[in-house]
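Board work, copied verbatim: Glyoxylase, beta-lactamase superfamily II
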Amino acid sequence: MSDGSAWQGGPVTDTVEIVLCNNPGPMSLDGTNTYLLFGSQDRAVVVDPGPYDEEHLAAVHDAVTARGASVALTLLTHHHDDHAGGVDRWVEVTGSPVRGAGRGAAFAHGEVLDEQGLGIVVLLTPGHTADSVSFLLPQQNLLLTGDTVLGRGTTVVAFPDGDLGDYLDSLDRLRTAIAGHGGTVALAPAHGPTHPDADAVIAYYQRHRGERLDQVRAALGQIDPRHADAADAVVNVVYADVPEQVRPAAYATVRATLDYLSR
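↓ predict structure ↓
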Protein backbone atom coordinates (compact mmCIF):
# COMPACT_ATOMS: atom_id res chain seq x y z
CA MET A 1 0.00 0.00 0.00
CA SER A 2 1.06 3.58 -0.60
CA ASP A 3 3.13 5.27 2.10
CA GLY A 4 2.71 8.76 0.66
CA SER A 5 5.84 8.66 -1.51
CA ALA A 6 5.75 8.91 -5.30
CA TRP A 7 3.53 6.16 -6.67
CA GLN A 8 5.39 3.58 -8.74
CA GLY A 9 3.11 0.55 -8.70
CA GLY A 10 4.61 -2.83 -7.79
CA PRO A 11 3.35 -5.69 -5.62
CA VAL A 12 0.00 -5.20 -3.87
CA THR A 13 -0.28 -8.69 -2.38
CA ASP A 14 1.62 -11.93 -2.95
CA THR A 15 -0.53 -12.63 -6.01
CA VAL A 16 -1.48 -9.14 -7.24
CA GLU A 17 0.94 -6.78 -8.93
CA ILE A 18 0.66 -3.36 -10.59
CA VAL A 19 2.67 -2.34 -13.64
CA LEU A 20 2.44 1.46 -13.86
CA CYS A 21 2.25 2.93 -17.35
CA ASN A 22 4.39 5.96 -18.09
CA ASN A 23 1.42 8.11 -19.11
CA PRO A 24 1.12 10.64 -16.27
CA GLY A 25 -1.17 13.62 -16.68
CA PRO A 26 -3.86 15.74 -15.06
CA MET A 27 -6.48 13.05 -15.73
CA SER A 28 -4.35 9.90 -15.45
CA LEU A 29 -2.46 11.11 -12.34
CA ASP A 30 0.75 9.03 -12.06
CA GLY A 31 -0.32 6.89 -15.03
CA THR A 32 -2.53 3.87 -15.64
CA ASN A 33 -2.29 0.99 -13.18
CA THR A 34 -2.33 -2.31 -15.06
CA TYR A 35 -3.20 -5.12 -12.64
CA LEU A 36 -1.77 -8.63 -12.84
CA LEU A 37 -3.76 -11.22 -10.88
CA PHE A 38 -1.91 -14.50 -10.54
CA GLY A 39 -4.01 -17.62 -10.17
CA SER A 40 -3.41 -21.20 -9.15
CA GLN A 41 -2.08 -22.68 -12.39
CA ASP A 42 0.71 -20.40 -13.64
CA ARG A 43 -1.85 -18.30 -15.47
CA ALA A 44 -2.68 -14.64 -14.91
CA VAL A 45 -5.65 -12.34 -15.37
CA VAL A 46 -4.66 -8.87 -16.58
CA VAL A 47 -6.91 -5.88 -15.87
CA ASP A 48 -6.59 -2.79 -18.11
CA PRO A 49 -3.52 -3.42 -20.30
CA GLY A 50 -3.44 0.33 -20.89
CA PRO A 51 -2.85 2.59 -23.90
CA TYR A 52 -1.14 1.66 -27.13
CA ASP A 53 2.37 1.90 -25.73
CA GLU A 54 4.76 -0.82 -26.84
CA GLU A 55 7.10 -0.24 -23.91
CA HIS A 56 4.31 -0.58 -21.37
CA LEU A 57 2.76 -3.63 -23.01
CA ALA A 58 6.18 -5.27 -23.09
CA ALA A 59 6.69 -4.45 -19.39
CA VAL A 60 3.33 -6.02 -18.54
CA HIS A 61 4.14 -9.12 -20.56
CA ASP A 62 7.58 -9.36 -18.95
CA ALA A 63 6.04 -9.10 -15.47
CA VAL A 64 3.71 -11.99 -16.29
CA THR A 65 6.44 -14.22 -17.73
CA ALA A 66 8.80 -13.38 -14.85
CA ARG A 67 6.45 -15.42 -12.68
CA GLY A 68 6.53 -18.28 -15.15
CA ALA A 69 2.94 -17.49 -16.12
CA SER A 70 0.94 -16.80 -19.26
CA VAL A 71 -2.22 -14.71 -19.71
CA ALA A 72 -5.50 -16.58 -19.28
CA LEU A 73 -7.87 -13.60 -19.54
CA THR A 74 -7.80 -9.83 -19.98
CA LEU A 75 -10.47 -7.64 -18.36
CA LEU A 76 -11.29 -4.02 -19.15
CA THR A 77 -12.87 -1.68 -16.61
CA HIS A 78 -14.11 0.64 -19.39
CA HIS A 79 -13.37 1.77 -22.92
CA HIS A 80 -11.19 4.87 -22.44
CA ASP A 81 -7.93 4.71 -24.39
CA ASP A 82 -5.67 4.92 -21.35
CA HIS A 83 -7.17 1.59 -20.26
CA ALA A 84 -8.08 -0.18 -23.47
CA GLY A 85 -6.21 1.57 -26.29
CA GLY A 86 -3.52 -1.11 -26.41
CA VAL A 87 -5.79 -4.13 -26.14
CA ASP A 88 -5.63 -5.15 -29.81
CA ARG A 89 -1.85 -5.18 -29.71
CA TRP A 90 -1.99 -6.98 -26.35
CA VAL A 91 -4.12 -9.72 -27.88
CA GLU A 92 -1.62 -10.05 -30.74
CA VAL A 93 1.17 -10.57 -28.22
CA THR A 94 -0.61 -12.86 -25.77
CA GLY A 95 -3.55 -14.45 -27.58
CA SER A 96 -5.64 -13.62 -24.52
CA PRO A 97 -9.44 -13.50 -24.65
CA VAL A 98 -10.88 -10.15 -23.57
CA ARG A 99 -14.00 -9.14 -21.68
CA GLY A 100 -15.31 -5.67 -20.99
CA ALA A 101 -15.83 -2.43 -22.91
CA GLY A 102 -17.98 -4.19 -25.48
CA ARG A 103 -15.66 -7.16 -25.98
CA GLY A 104 -16.56 -10.74 -25.23
CA ALA A 105 -19.65 -11.76 -23.29
CA ALA A 106 -21.38 -8.90 -21.49
CA PHE A 107 -20.82 -8.76 -17.75
CA ALA A 108 -23.62 -9.45 -15.28
CA HIS A 109 -23.67 -7.73 -11.89
CA GLY A 110 -22.53 -10.19 -9.24
CA GLU A 111 -21.10 -12.61 -11.80
CA VAL A 112 -18.15 -14.59 -10.44
CA LEU A 113 -15.19 -15.12 -12.75
CA ASP A 114 -13.48 -18.16 -11.29
CA GLU A 115 -10.60 -18.04 -13.74
CA GLN A 116 -7.58 -19.71 -12.12
CA GLY A 117 -9.50 -19.97 -8.84
CA LEU A 118 -9.41 -16.20 -8.33
CA GLY A 119 -13.15 -15.82 -7.64
CA ILE A 120 -13.38 -12.33 -9.15
CA VAL A 121 -16.79 -10.73 -8.46
CA VAL A 122 -18.03 -8.40 -11.21
CA LEU A 123 -19.71 -5.18 -10.04
CA LEU A 124 -21.44 -3.05 -12.66
CA THR A 125 -20.53 0.53 -11.73
CA PRO A 126 -21.64 2.89 -14.52
CA GLY A 127 -21.33 6.62 -14.04
CA HIS A 128 -17.79 7.62 -15.01
CA THR A 129 -18.74 5.94 -18.29
CA ALA A 130 -21.76 3.86 -19.19
CA ASP A 131 -19.64 0.71 -19.43
CA SER A 132 -17.61 1.09 -16.22
CA VAL A 133 -17.18 -2.01 -14.08
CA SER A 134 -15.31 -2.82 -10.88
CA PHE A 135 -13.94 -6.11 -9.61
CA LEU A 136 -14.00 -7.42 -6.04
CA LEU A 137 -11.35 -9.97 -5.13
CA PRO A 138 -12.69 -11.49 -1.89
CA GLN A 139 -9.70 -13.78 -1.40
CA GLN A 140 -7.37 -10.78 -1.51
CA ASN A 141 -9.65 -8.31 0.33
CA LEU A 142 -9.16 -6.02 -2.67
CA LEU A 143 -11.50 -3.86 -4.76
CA LEU A 144 -10.43 -2.83 -8.27
CA THR A 145 -12.42 0.28 -9.14
CA GLY A 146 -11.11 1.42 -12.53
CA ASP A 147 -11.85 5.14 -12.80
CA THR A 148 -14.97 4.98 -10.62
CA VAL A 149 -12.86 5.70 -7.53
CA LEU A 150 -9.30 7.00 -7.84
CA GLY A 151 -6.32 6.76 -5.54
CA ARG A 152 -6.00 10.53 -5.36
CA GLY A 153 -8.57 13.28 -5.88
CA THR A 154 -11.97 12.58 -7.42
CA THR A 155 -13.09 11.35 -10.81
CA VAL A 156 -14.94 12.90 -13.74
CA VAL A 157 -18.48 11.97 -14.70
CA ALA A 158 -17.84 11.96 -18.45
CA PHE A 159 -21.19 13.30 -19.67
CA PRO A 160 -23.00 12.45 -21.89
CA ASP A 161 -21.60 8.92 -21.75
CA GLY A 162 -21.30 9.20 -17.99
CA ASP A 163 -24.36 9.80 -15.80
CA LEU A 164 -24.38 11.27 -12.30
CA GLY A 165 -27.43 9.33 -11.13
CA ASP A 166 -25.77 6.10 -12.22
CA TYR A 167 -22.55 7.19 -10.55
CA LEU A 168 -24.19 7.85 -7.19
CA ASP A 169 -25.93 4.47 -7.40
CA SER A 170 -22.60 2.83 -8.20
CA LEU A 171 -20.96 4.29 -5.11
CA ASP A 172 -23.79 2.80 -3.05
CA ARG A 173 -23.36 -0.51 -4.88
CA LEU A 174 -19.65 -0.62 -4.08
CA ARG A 175 -20.24 0.02 -0.38
CA THR A 176 -22.94 -2.65 -0.32
CA ALA A 177 -20.52 -5.14 -1.86
CA ILE A 178 -17.87 -4.28 0.71
CA ALA A 179 -20.35 -4.64 3.58
CA GLY A 180 -21.49 -7.99 2.20
CA HIS A 181 -17.92 -9.19 2.05
CA GLY A 182 -17.27 -8.33 5.69
CA GLY A 183 -14.04 -6.89 7.00
CA THR A 184 -11.84 -4.21 5.51
CA VAL A 185 -11.28 -4.18 1.76
CA ALA A 186 -8.39 -2.27 0.20
CA LEU A 187 -8.91 0.11 -2.71
CA ALA A 188 -7.09 -0.72 -5.94
CA PRO A 189 -7.79 2.14 -8.39
CA ALA A 190 -6.77 2.49 -12.02
CA HIS A 191 -4.92 5.73 -11.27
CA GLY A 192 -3.03 6.74 -8.16
CA PRO A 193 -1.98 4.73 -5.13
CA THR A 194 -3.81 1.93 -3.43
CA HIS A 195 -5.53 2.66 -0.10
CA PRO A 196 -6.05 0.29 2.84
CA ASP A 197 -9.75 1.15 3.33
CA ALA A 198 -11.90 1.33 0.20
CA ASP A 199 -15.09 2.00 2.13
CA ALA A 200 -13.63 5.10 3.76
CA VAL A 201 -12.55 6.49 0.39
CA ILE A 202 -15.95 5.80 -1.18
CA ALA A 203 -17.72 7.43 1.77
CA TYR A 204 -15.57 10.51 1.17
CA TYR A 205 -16.56 10.46 -2.51
CA GLN A 206 -20.23 10.40 -1.51
CA ARG A 207 -19.80 13.37 0.82
CA HIS A 208 -17.84 15.28 -1.80
CA ARG A 209 -20.42 14.65 -4.49
CA GLY A 210 -23.19 15.82 -2.15
CA GLU A 211 -21.24 19.01 -1.45
CA ARG A 212 -20.77 19.62 -5.17
CA LEU A 213 -24.50 19.19 -5.75
CA ASP A 214 -25.20 21.85 -3.13
CA GLN A 215 -22.60 24.16 -4.70
CA VAL A 216 -24.10 23.76 -8.17
CA ARG A 217 -27.59 24.47 -6.85
CA ALA A 218 -26.29 27.64 -5.19
CA ALA A 219 -24.39 28.67 -8.33
CA LEU A 220 -27.53 28.34 -10.44
CA GLY A 221 -29.09 31.02 -8.26
CA GLN A 222 -26.18 33.38 -8.94
CA ILE A 223 -25.74 33.14 -12.70
CA ASP A 224 -27.54 35.21 -15.32
CA PRO A 225 -30.37 33.03 -16.71
CA ARG A 226 -29.64 34.52 -20.13
CA HIS A 227 -26.17 32.95 -20.14
CA ALA A 228 -25.93 30.82 -23.28
CA ASP A 229 -23.99 28.06 -21.54
CA ALA A 230 -25.19 27.41 -18.00
CA ALA A 231 -22.58 24.69 -17.44
CA ASP A 232 -19.74 27.06 -18.33
CA ALA A 233 -21.16 29.69 -15.98
CA VAL A 234 -21.43 27.15 -13.15
CA VAL A 235 -17.85 25.99 -13.73
CA ASN A 236 -16.71 29.60 -13.37
CA VAL A 237 -18.31 29.69 -9.91
CA VAL A 238 -17.90 26.18 -8.50
CA TYR A 239 -14.59 25.23 -10.12
CA ALA A 240 -13.03 28.68 -10.37
CA ASP A 241 -9.75 27.47 -8.86
CA VAL A 242 -9.16 24.36 -10.97
CA PRO A 243 -6.18 24.30 -13.35
CA GLU A 244 -7.04 24.99 -16.98
CA GLN A 245 -5.99 21.49 -18.05
CA VAL A 246 -8.72 19.87 -15.94
CA ARG A 247 -11.43 22.40 -16.81
CA PRO A 248 -12.89 20.11 -19.52
CA ALA A 249 -13.40 17.43 -16.86
CA ALA A 250 -15.07 19.95 -14.56
CA TYR A 251 -17.29 21.07 -17.45
CA ALA A 252 -18.34 17.48 -18.23
CA THR A 253 -19.12 16.80 -14.58
CA VAL A 254 -21.16 20.01 -14.27
CA ARG A 255 -23.14 19.06 -17.38
CA ALA A 256 -23.82 15.69 -15.74
CA THR A 257 -24.87 17.48 -12.55
CA LEU A 258 -27.25 19.82 -14.37
CA ASP A 259 -28.76 16.86 -16.19
CA TYR A 260 -29.23 15.07 -12.85
CA LEU A 261 -30.85 18.11 -11.23
CA SER A 262 -33.22 18.58 -14.16
CA ARG A 263 -34.95 15.22 -13.66
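The first strand starts at residue 10 and ends at 13.
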